[in-house]
Amino acid sequence: MDTQKILKHYCKYVYVAGAGNYWYDDTYTETVPYKVYTYVSFAIYTVMILLENMAALFGSFPDVEKNSAVMFAAIHDIVLYKMYTMLLSKGSIKELNREMAAVGASREEGRVMRRQRFKLKWGMVVYVVSVYLSLIAYGVESFRRMYQEGV
């Protein structure tokens, strides 16, 4: 698999997630229903983050839950900022993808590309597993506290 295919493959996932076409040509068309879906999903996410921030600021929680609410609000604000920055920088990202595909094509070797693909896949797997394991650990700890401490 070459650099262009790898980049295009991940641009497809970004498109399916609703963030738009980040590939340098119009392979993934942004139709009117797709744009409506993008705006609605980003609006819902923005409102959810706003409500989460209000809960962290004004909510009456025990100390542990208050700390968790503040932590998640801060993290989600950063994610929201990155999402909107990505939307505003779409042209630059498309140009960067075009340049990376062109530069990568001149430096591709079979062994190196296999190794890069292996590292990319396992990096993504480790990331996803670590996110879900931390989520599960948080849930287990919350249930433990609920049953043992009655919180």
TrEMBL record:
Protein origin, superkingdom: Eukaryota
UniProt entry keywords in alphabetical sequence: Membrane, Transmembrane, Transmembrane helix
Membrane-crossing residue ranges in chain numbering: 36-58, 70-88, 120-140
Protein name (Swiss-Prot/TrEMBL): Uncharacterized protein
